[in-house]
Structure formats: C-alpha cells, structure tokens
Amino acid sequence: MMDLVAQIKTVDMMIKSLRGDLRNITPYPFVPEKPRYPAEPPRHPLPRSTPEAQGVPSAYLELFFRELDQCPDISVHSVVVLRHGKLIAQAHWKPYSGIYAQMVYSLSKTVTAMAVGMAVEEKLFSLDDRICDLLSDRMPPSPFRKHKMEGMTIRHLLNMTAGLRINEVSTIFEKDWVKACLNSDCAYEPGSEFTYNSMNSYLLSALIHKTTGQGLVEYLTPRLFQPLGIENVVWEKCPMGIEKGGWGLFLRPEDMAKLGQLYLQKGRWTVNGESRQLLSQKWVEESTDAGIQTVMGEHQTTYGYHVWGFPIPGSYQFNGVFGQYVVVIPNLDMVIAITSGSHSLFVDESASIIQKYFGNDQNFSSDPLPQNINGLRSLKQTLTSFALFPDTIPERREKTLLQKISQTLFARQPVPKLSPDAARLNGRSYTLKNSYGTILPFIFSVVRNSFLPPIQRVSFAFAPGFCTVEFTDETGKQIIRAGLDGEPRRSVLNINGEYYVTGNVARLTRDEDGRPVLKLYISFLETPNTRVMKFIFSGDRILIRFQEIPSVDNASKLLMNLVGGSSGLEKLLVEKLNEERLAGYARRITVPKARGTLDLESTL
After folding, report:
1. CA 237 → CA 176, 244, 577, distances in Å?
2. Cys-Cys link to 243, which of 166, 216, 358, 493 (CB 3.0-4.6 A)?
3. Cβ contacts of residue 565 below 8 Å, gap of 6+?
4. What's residue 290's pLDDT?
C-alpha cells in the first residue's frame, strides 16, 4: 500500500496512459544521458580454456546449451560459463553478440551492494546506522517525521526489510526521489517483514552519493570496474543526477561473469599480476548468507544483501528481471552468466535447466580430462549456430559433391534476384492512419520514460538478401536494414537523443489468404527487448500488427505487482483496468495496430 498522494498520482498516470498521452506522463522532461556504446569485445577478457582442461566434458556442456536453446519460454541472448576462473564456453544467439553492454535491470542491485560493502570497509558508515541520521538534511521537520521511518537502517535497505511504501512506480511522477522516500512512511516496523522494493537500493545509491561526494560509477571505477577490466560503464540516473541503484546498469555478459567470479573468489582479484582484496571476504560471506526466507515468483527462496539464493546447495544468484542472471556455484567452482528477453519476470526455466546440469558433481572432475577434439569441435559448432529467430533463416539444401564440382567448373554463379513479392513491394510507401504504434517496444519506453510519437509513414526497399524499412514520425526518420538471408543487419537509432544499436532480421512470406507478409524483428541489442512488426499487404492497403518480446502482458503483471493492490484506490484502478472497455483501450496502446494506404507516387 502506498501513500494516498502516490495512489492518486498513480491513477492519474494510468488515465493519461489510457488516453494515449504517453509523452506527458511525468512531471519532468526526458533528459538523454546514454552515449553510443563502442562496438568491441572486452579489452581485458577473462582467461580462456577448453572445457576438458577444466574437468568438464564438452559433450555435457553441449547438451546444456541445446536445452536452453530449445526452451521456448526463455528467449536466451547470451550465456557465459566459467570454471576455475576460466571462460570455458560462451554462446550468443543472433543478432546478439556479447560485444554490447546490456540493461541488466535488478542485477544492478548487487553492484550497488558491493559499493555499500566497500564504504562500510572504509568506515564511512555501519550497517546499523539509521538513514534518518545519515540523510538528516533531507528528512522532513521533526513534527512530520514518521516513527517507523526513523528506525530504518542500512541493513534493512540491503535485505529488503525496510518496508518503504513508495516504490518504483512512484518514480514516474516524482522528480526528487530522495525527498519522496523520506517524506513517505514504512508499511511496517523495519526488520519485521520482507518486501522487494528497488527504492531501497536507490536510497543506498543516494547514501553513497552523500557520504563520498561521488556517484556509484565514479566511486566504483577505481575500486571495482577498473581492476576487473570493465570499461565504459553506463548507469542511468534519476532526475536529480543520482544513479538509480536498483536498476539502470549496463553490462556485457562477460562483465557479469566477472562479478560472479569476484564473489566466488571471496572478493579477491588479480590485478597486473598482484592479488588484491577488492571486496572484503567478510562482506561476501555475510551478503551471500541468505537469511531472509521469501518467495521469488512461485518459488520459495532466500535473500541476503541484494543477493538471492539459488536451488543448488551453497549457491546463490544475482537476478534481473526478464532473465538477466549470474549464478555462482561454489561446490563446482563455476559461474554462469545469462542475458535474455525472457517472458518470465524473475524466475524462468533456465533456473531448472542449470539445476539439472549443475546440481551435482557427477559429471565434473577436479582434474583435467583427456583432450576430446571431436567433442570440442561439436560444441563450438553448436555454440555458433544459435539464432533468436530461427524462422528467419532460409532452408538451405546441401549440394552433392558432383553438383559443387559442376558448378565450380562449368557454371557461372547465378545473379541474385528478388522474389516476385519483393520485386512487387520494392519502393512502396504507405501513409498510416491514427495509431499508437512506434518503433520502440512499449516496455522499453516505460522503463526509460522515453516515448516516440506514432509512426506516420512506412517505406520499403528490397535487395538480394536484405530489406530496408524506413519509418517516419513527427520527429523524423528511422531506417532499419534487416537480413532476409538469416544474417542480422545492424542499425544505429537516435531515440530522443540517445543512441541504440539494433540487430534486425526479417522474413517475407504469404499468409493463409495468399497475402504477402513481411515479419520484421528489431532487437535492441543493449536491452532485453525486441520490437516485432508484422506487415500484411493487401492491394493498396497495409495492416501492421505490433508485438514485442518480452510481452507486454507479463510486463503489465510486473507493474501491478509494483503498484500493490491493497488500498481502495489501487483496487479500484485494477478493477477498472479489467473492465472490457478500458482493457480494450489499454491493448490499443500497448499492443497496437496500424492501417495505411499506398502513396500513389510510390507506384509511379
């Protein structure tokens, strides 16, 4: 249950959303802050090794990766596997490649907790210090202070027992998040219950900012990021310039694995040949000693200092929504890092698959195994074969040896030609009627508070192996080049002053009514999100259906979990949203359609 004012603001936000007034939801303007991320692999990679050299059969790892790939509910982007501190296998599902840092959502919390652990070690504060004392200059005057709020400590924020009423949803319509938190109240006596709330992590970020005079990135760069070789760190900030703490961090998959390895090594890391204690062993042990009993989704689990338990004895995980995980398995001396666009919010099938393959030591050796060239070759072939959207890969018939020789000796290479449908649609442009459809996935827009106006015009150009789709709205044009041959093409989009790289694939086919259909997948490679557009051509008309991965339905469930639902206003809001009319309005905005007509000049 949130405070009354926050409840009223939430209702107002939802009403604006249903009216389609998405670009004016917040009382503060969107400020671009994300730079263009360099497209390059890590300059300080982890040491590499073969699975057998680290006591792991390549064939066994191949089974693990294949099962992840075949699970339809996960939508894996990247997986990195370490043993004994060495990278023994990694896979990236096209169009993802692992060279871009990706939004890791709540996995950011664990990194915030690392900063707190370092500040405690530097004696800037202790875990039992009260927030009202440390942030006394931001607290309301004594007559207006809440009794429960005065009992809240750093430890309560770390283990999610603070009971803050204000939550992530409130940040959409508050500019000063620290003031909003401290002027709110606690739903219960701090320390008595567990409530997962990202504003706990934000207050810790604000505390680091207050006590050190530095933001999280500046504070952690010489202490954590530089020693680990993690560069170009991006962490989103609140409107007042403080890193969000509970979310907003961008990391490469290999960088995520490094953080897990640091914990596995009890905070020690070798820097320029010298072993250093970056994070105290006491902190690692205390933060992973998950003593809070709670649930994650429908599963019983435990929680420490921004670290979740994992269903393998002695193991734990850093967890971000939509499938961003680092799983640390001390009994096997292993770390597994995963990025995804999962349809699940906090727990997906990857957890049970990891438990299946790494839940015991029967298939692992403490000593190196004999070299297995065939097994390693098969594993590498599998790891390079994965694609996020296999339906966009054309079927290729293997030529016989005689056909290959004949083509090489006697035949000219065929000149690639457009298919009849591609030739017919090439050069066409369509003007769209009123719609809420944009190139941005709705989930991404909400998380970043970065909305685009609806698409007004769409144009198509085809060439052998790829197509180009040009989108026009009131702010300008966005151009997407997508592979029709199964190979992704990349585009760089300027989204409200921020640069995002997309990997794009498409498939041109026909539906059951014989109409040409172009299905376009636009994966935002620095996020878990993919915009899916289905263009249906019928004469001089076009219909566009907008979907996205992860789906809006699951994101809506997340939003409702954050809003709560215990107060009268919140219950009324949920009831109204469930009414058929309002539900229709909501889907028109979140899962829109667009209709358009052919521009006559594009057919001349």
Report:
1. 12, 5, 31
2. 216
3. 571, 574
4. 77
What is the H or E stretch that residue 15 is in?
Answer: helix 4-18
Distance CA 110, CA 102 (A): 16
Report DSSP state, residue 426. T
The backbone torsions φ and ψ at residue 129, rounded to the nearest 5 degrees and listed phi first, read -70, 145
Which amino acid, residue 25? I
Q: What are phi and psi of 550, to 5 degrees?
A: -60, 160
Between the alpha carbon of residue 321 and those of residues 205, 316, 547, the distances in Å are 20, 16, 19
Residue found by looking up tokens 């897990």 in the block: 260
- Asked if 96 contacts 32 with a C-beta cutoff of 8 angstroms, the reply is no
Closest C-alpha to 219, from 339, 342, 118, 361: 118
> CB count, 10 Å around CB of 55?
19
User: How big is the chain by its Cα radius of gyration, in Å?
Assistant: 26
CB–CB of 570/169 below 8 Å?
A: no
Output the pLDDT for position 398: 63
Residues of the chain whose pLDDT is less than 70? 1-27, 143-144, 297-298, 397-415, 554-586, 601-604
Residue 494 to residues 247, 414, 439, 604, Cα–Cα distance (Å): 22, 38, 11, 31
| Residue from 555, 590, 523 nearest 168 by CA | 555
Structure confidence at residue 537 (pLDDT): 98
Cα–Cα dist 140/479, whole Å: 50
Q: What's the confidence (pLDDT) of residue 484?
A: 97
The residue length of the chain stands at: 604
Q: What integer pLDDT is reported at residue 509 of this predicted model?
A: 97
Residue 567: per-residue pLDDT:
44
**Which DSSP symbol is given to 94?**
B
Burial class (CB in 10 A: 0-12, 13-18, 19+), 383: middle
Tell me the average pLDDT of the chain: 89
User: What pLDDT score was predicted for residue 2?
Assistant: 43
For 227-247, b where at least 16 C-beta lie within 10 A, e where not — what string?
bbbbbebbbbbbbeebbbbbb
Which residues, 6 or more positions from 327, have their beta carbon under 8 angstroms from its beta carbon? 260, 310, 315, 316, 317, 335, 336, 337, 338, 354
542 phi and psi, to 5 degrees?
A: -135, 145
Distance in angstroms (rounded) separating the CA atoms of residues 37 and 519? 28
Return d(Cα 598, Cα 604) in angstroms, integer. Answer: 11
